[in-house]
């Protein structure tokens, strides 16, 4: 894999991670439960740290790092706002949409790790993939628990 392809792959991950950072922040704004709000804000901050790490890798490789989230991510956040406004149980709606966002991130990271990345890049992507998987699994657990409370 040439340097341009590695930079492109990293920029794709930056974009999807920016989506996650903003998505978690948006989710925090759409829930009333304080522990859940705190969880989402913490995840947003952790994803922001991952974004900076990826951006530093792109710079190290001589590229220009992505700084914006994707258009589809922005549309997803607007959909979350709309759906939450229409839903009687906004916590479940927020968790459903957050999990969908994490599904997309997980798929992007899995696709990236299948590529022939340089070892230092691979190590970072693998570690971040594990974090995305943990986020996904935790959001799914929270969603299932919220659904059970509703009945």
From TrEMBL:
InterPro entries referenced in this protein's UniProt entry, alphabetically: CHP02284 (IPR011971), DUF2383 (IPR019052), Ferritin-like (IPR012347), Ferritin-like_SF (IPR009078), UCP029477 (IPR016920)
Chain segments annotated as coiled-coil in the UniProt record: none
Source organism: Methylovorus glucosotrophus (strain SIP3-4)
Residue ranges of domain DUF2383 in the record: 5-115
Recorded superkingdom: Bacteria
Pfam families for the chain: DUF2383
The protein's name: NAD-dependent aldehyde dehydrogenase
